[in-house]
Amino acid sequence: MNGNTDHFNNLNPPQVGGTTQHSQASSTSLHDLSQIHGALDAVYGPHSTNDQRQEATAFLEQAKRDSQAPHFGYGLASDQSQPASVRHYGLSLLEYPIKYKWEDLEEQDSSVLRSWVIQLAQNLDDNDAAFLRNKIAQLLEEVAKRSWAVEWLDLDTLLVELWQGSLTHKVLVLYVLEMLSDDIFNRDDAAAALREKELSKACVDIFVPTAVLNQHYPSRDVKVEVRCGDEGWISRLCGLLDWSLDNHPPKNDRVHSCIVKTLSCLKAAVTWIMPKALHATRCLDHLCKALSVADVGVQMATTEVLYAFYKRTQGPFIKEVEYTDLFTAMLLPDRVNLLKHVYQYSTVDIRDLDYPKYALCKKFTEVLSSIGEFIEERPSAIPPNGTDLTSFFDLLVEILRSPSLVVSIPVLHAWTRLLRCRAVTSSETVTRLIPVLLETCSSRLLRYESLPDDADDDISLFLCEDFDTVPERHAFLGNYRRYCMDIVEVIVRLKPFDAMYYILGQAERLFSNPYEGQVASAAAYGKKSIPFLRVEAQVTIIEAALKGYLRWLDDEETIDKEREAQCKALESYSEQWCRTILTIPMEDPAIKMKIIQTVTMFATKVLLRDSDLGMWVVEYLLSLDAANDFDISRHSEAAKSLEVQVTNDLGRLAILNANNLLRRYDQIEIRVKQILNDSSSDERRKAGCQALLFTIVQRATILDDGTRGPRLQAMLQPVKHAWQSTDVLSAASSYESFCAFLGLDQIVEFMTKQDFDKTEDWATCELNAEGKAKQAEIMARCDRIPLRLTKTMLAASTEKLKEDSSSFKTACLLWTDVLPVLLPSVLRLIGYSQAFTDLATWSHLPTEYQRLIRKVLTDRFWQAGISNESKEDFYARINGSRTSYEGFASTVRGSVRQIRETCYFILYGMTRLQEHFFGIPDLAEPLAQALFTNANGLSAHQLSVLLSMSSALIEECPRSLRPQFLPPMMINLFTNLDNRISADWDALERQKLEIVASGLLVEEMKSESILRQLTYSTITLIANILDHPNGSSRRRLPSLPSLEPTLRTFVLSHPAILEPLVLFSTHALRMRDIRSCTIVITVLRSIIPSFQDSPHAPSSPSITPSTIAAAPQVREFISTEVLKACITSLHEPYFVDLQRELASLIASILLLYGPTTSTPRDILLSLPGMSVEKVDRAFDRIIRRSKGDDKYQRAVVLDLLEGLRGVSIHEQGRMERSQRRERPKVQQRFMEVDSEVQGQGTGRAASPDLAGVADMFGDN
Questions:
Q1: What is the chain's Cα-based Rg?
Q2: Which long-range CB contacts under 8 A does 637-643 form with residues at least 24 apart?
Q3: What's the rounded Cα separation, in Å, for the pair 547 and 551?
Q4: What are the two backbone dihedrals, phi and then psi, of residue 950, each rounded to the nearest 5 degrees?
Q5: Would 230 disulfide with which of 210, 549, 1057, 1172, CB 3.0-4.6 Å?
Q6: Is the pLDDT of residue 1245 over 50?
Q7: Region Disordered: which residues (predicted)?
């Protein structure tokens, strides 16, 4: 099509886009080239001031809205005598009406605009700057998205004509085709989505050869012909690629660029085009030819094309023979040799890193992984003859053993699938590789993130190169180890006896000599020592192997006599192996803990039948005394961890070996009494031993109920009597008594006397004798409250018991007698311990004393990826300061925190008692008061613990008791959380600049990270309550009849509960946490239909009369506040990755509430630049024309609000790629870590100061 510009050559050019009046000054300035030059110089000039740059930008932006701007822009863009920056600005003057005014243009005006863009494309010159050529191609594509295949039918003719021109014109065509493919099929482009049906059909028509279309769509509609010729663009692209490779060496920069651009265009096309077209055009042959070129750039571009196609695992074409052929063709011998050659060519040395080759290697292994996964999915599709699977699998093993874990992880993942395919593992080709796979995966279960920073092995060096932050590395390595464990498990299932003997023999050799002949040094003990890491990795291997062995036993429906004999021999060997390794002398408590963990796994998972190993291990653990057997002064934390492990293992062993242990009960009881009477035994160990006896009696099936009940009741009497003691009752009588009982009633005076207020660095100042005595007194007084014993006994009573079992019912009856005694004191202790941490409690003190208390109450905590030291170093520093002033302060706040959080845990344990706890009369109100009255004083991470416990109270409440228990709990909880979290986010935004200026950025990042986690936990709870998939319920109950409504129905039918949930969700839309916002958007979308006032509204059990009664108020709130929050977030660059989700939420509001209330329409009309016609057109499209198409509805919203979005999705992506190194997709795929946790917002660039943001909705 040749455009006619005569229409604009008269003296008074018509106004494109309407008849908007403009001042003479505006018109004059628009045509004053000196002002344009001056403004552009000010914008791009390095010496311009901010005011000059802003003023120039405002002038240039305002000029785009002038009615004569398109005419003037065309003149500038087509004038090759103008500087490139001026011509580019001229193109932006053309772009504005195309993108933002197209639907308001008269047909004549849009035709002229199209003709101008076409002429610019036709008149391209080889000397034009690349950014000018790209911009013209972009304008051509923007016009195509809006008019092609309707009023403009000869786009393909134009492209073919340009294709026949110079190399510059070919590149322009490639750019247009690539953008069309991406915007129509691969991206969520608003303009393309509005016309998706017409554009997608037209795209298929021009890309696919006519012969293939006639074969695949013999009855297709050809009334509107948009193609030029029968060849199709896939064929033309392959032809250009082939010609370029044959006739022009890649060292020619222009031809090389053309080759890469051709491959980029193919990459966009192969994601959607039918495999028949690729097969008919021999596209794979051309790609393999490009892959064989010894040029990293060409090979990388080719690899991207292959990866884009081989990741197509869904769609109507995947069952076609041609789809299968495109995979199996890569398994031919010459193709496998090519793949091997490319991989070996791209292999790099970490000490002399070739970055382009390394990038190629990482992407290339993903292609091979996809081919491997195809083999697993369709083994029968692989031809038995002609393919070289042996060499291909050898190549996969070679890649698996690469020192770069990022290179090997795609293939590692593929092996986890291949080894589960019986057709694959039954082949000798794969069977012979199993020993290598087992050895490789076993060797890589080491925790590389714990190796010293100066580790010089290749794997560690590659990890340092690939990951910038510790959390990223941890997440990746966690996934890598998970895949390795999976392979170990599958191999054991395939070869159970050979693999188990090999693994256990390897482990015994390591456990017998973890130091490899070197003298063990206590200074080297710790979780970062090489011996410990090796032992830990071996334990992980055994854990995976046991899981595989147990699954093998489950898989085998019948085991013949030979297999049964093999099983018995293996179990006998395993039992002797456990006894051997457990008695190996070991001075390092951390390694000892791992060995105990291993033996416990065998005793509780494998050796349960015909074995007394469990009883023997219990006796061994009871004889172990970590505090005395190990030098606790040198490695106290490891010894304490060992004690915790021993206590936990005793509980697990008692549950599974109760009958055997009951037969030795008298001997066990004697040892337990010795421990209880030993003054050196700590409270944790004593409580664990008492719980051990309780569990044996409760779980032993050989004990009759008449004997069991009285014995268990007697065991609980110490708990009951302890809560009735004078000390405890006095401590729980008032806040003052609570402080006095702990020795904290005169704490300010004591610390002042010790000169705490005059000491700046508390960690460096040692306590005197009086201070140490006071510290010991506080800890001793805290232990006098029977919290640990209660928590341990309560957990032991219900752990791993089914609610319909007799043991569970017995436990409930036993605790029913105890709850009334301890519950009042527990609730008061919670209130007092929360009040102690509330600064308002200390407001009566002088200012200097308040500062002292604030410092005492400030928790020290370590944050992954933010703290400047490792976790081990942090705890070592904390332990080293125990006798310092800082250690004293830690004792004060730690004692109060221990009381508070142990009480939380006790309440959590009570929830397992079901109606015996929730049914206590008049419990809800005092419980809510105790939990939330003083909760404002808790820090964000302390509040997270309260939230976790509150979640259990909500989720575990029996359905029949919800009306009497949940309302006060949920209203108080979410009201407090909303007030606190919203205030913290507001304060965080206000303080950022001050904190950065003061150098306290690390502390601010810690606070922000904790706040993000608290926000996410709250949103997750809301999602769970409203039964959204993002929720993470502790217990998913089976579906019950509608007579027993779900928690979602309960909440939606109680407006008083729903209000704080919706209010917090609305505020969360503005909180700068992508994870939370993503979930809250989907949650809000899920509840919007429940309040739809329409005869066509979906029927649902969650819609009750109460829901219907509250619907008008909820609709108005969502139509006003939620809609405003969505639009405001859509406007901010921070939320650029959520624009699609926000647009979907807005579309839901307009679709479901628009017919009922005018509020959404009024809100949209209050936005700057919105016209009645534009808004009404959007409503018409969404309500009447969308036909339930979410993508179309979202596109309408994004198109409507295009001018309000601060930065578009694609443009924001380009900005980010230019500012920071782009992480390879292989790392993103295998690294599930939320960037928000790492402080994604650490680069705190302020949002652009766009006019009308503050008053966007016309509010004063």
A1: 36
A2: 637/875, 637/879, 638/525, 638/526, 638/527, 638/588, 638/589, 638/590, 638/593, 639/589, 641/589, 641/590, 641/593, 642/589, 642/590, 642/592, 642/593, 642/596, 643/682, 643/684, 643/685
A3: 6
A4: -65, -35
A5: 210
A6: no
A7: 1-31, 1212-1260
The pLDDT of residue 517 is above 70: no
Q: How far is the CA of 956 from the CAs of 1025, 1029, 1101, in angstroms?
A: 11, 18, 21
CA distance to 247, 489, 509, per residue, from 720 (Å) = 92, 47, 50
Burial (CB < 10 A; 0-12, 13-18, 19+), residue 736, is: exposed
How far is it, in rounded angstroms, from Cα 1085 to Cα 1144?
A: 8
CA 860 distance to own-chain centroid? 26
Angle subtended at Cα 1046 by Cα 1043 and Cα 1050, rounded to the nearest 5 degrees? 95
| Residue 23 counted as domain residue | no
Length of the chain: 1260
For residue 647, give the nearest of 698, 690, 598 by alpha carbon.
690
Closest alpha carbon to 370 in 338, 398, 411, 331: 411
**Which has the closest alpha carbon to 788: 656, 687, 705, 692?**
687
User: Which two structure tokens, joined as six digits, stand for 863?
Assistant: 């944050």
pLDDT at 48: 84
Pairwise CA distance, residues 1191 & 1144, whole Å: 8
Q: Which two tokens stand for residue 135?
A: 């911009």
pLDDT value at 471 more than 80: no
* pLDDT over 70, % of the chain: 85
Question: Could you report the per-residue pLDDT of 478-499, keeping only the tens digit for each?
Answer: 999 999 999 999 999 999 899 9
Amino acid present at 11? L
* Both tokens assigned to 963: 């009306």
In a domain, 217, yes or no: yes
- Report the C-alpha gap between 63 and 30 in whole angstroms: 6
Q: Could you write out the three-class secondary structure of 921-967? A: CCCHHHHHHHHHCCHHHCCHHHHHHHHHHHHHHHHHCCHHHHHHHHH
**Which helix (H) or strand (E) covers residue 304, if one does?**
helix 296-310
Distance CA(431)–CA(425), nearest Å, equals 6
573, 606 Cβ separation under 8 angstroms: no
| 115/104 Cα distance (integer angstroms) | 18
CA distance 493 to 551: 7
pLDDT per position as a tens digit, 649-697: 888 888 888 888 888 888 888 998 988 888 777 788 888 889 999 999 9
**What whole-number distance in Å separates Cα of residue 55 and Cα of residue 52?**
5
Last residue of a domain, one of 676, 703, 730: 703
Rounded-to-integer distance, Cα 1179 and Cα 1182, Å:
5
Beta carbons of 535 and 511 less than 8 angstroms apart = yes
Q: What are phi and psi of 884, to 5 degrees?
A: -95, 175
Cα 863 to Cα 270, 449, 522, 1034, 1073, distances in angstroms? 44, 16, 28, 26, 17
Domain membership flag for residue 1033: no
In the structure, what pLDDT confidence band is assigned to residue 629 with cuts at 50, 70 and 90? low
- Domain final residue, candidates 703, 736, 759: 703
Residue 1191: both structure tokens together: 């993508």
C-alpha–C-alpha distance, residues 396 and 487, integer Å: 14
Rounded to whole angstroms, the Cα distance separating 1194 from 1150 reads: 11
Q: What is the DSSP string of 63-111?
A: HHTSTTHHHHHHHHHH-TTS-HHHHHHHHHHHHHHHHHSGGGS-HHHHH
Nearest to residue 278, comparing CAs of 333, 338, 336, 207?
Answer: 207
Residues 6+ apart with CB under 8 A from 1208: 1136, 1202
- pLDDT above 80 (res 630): no
The total number of structural domains in the chain stands at 2
Cα distance between residue 657 and residue 621, in whole Å:
14
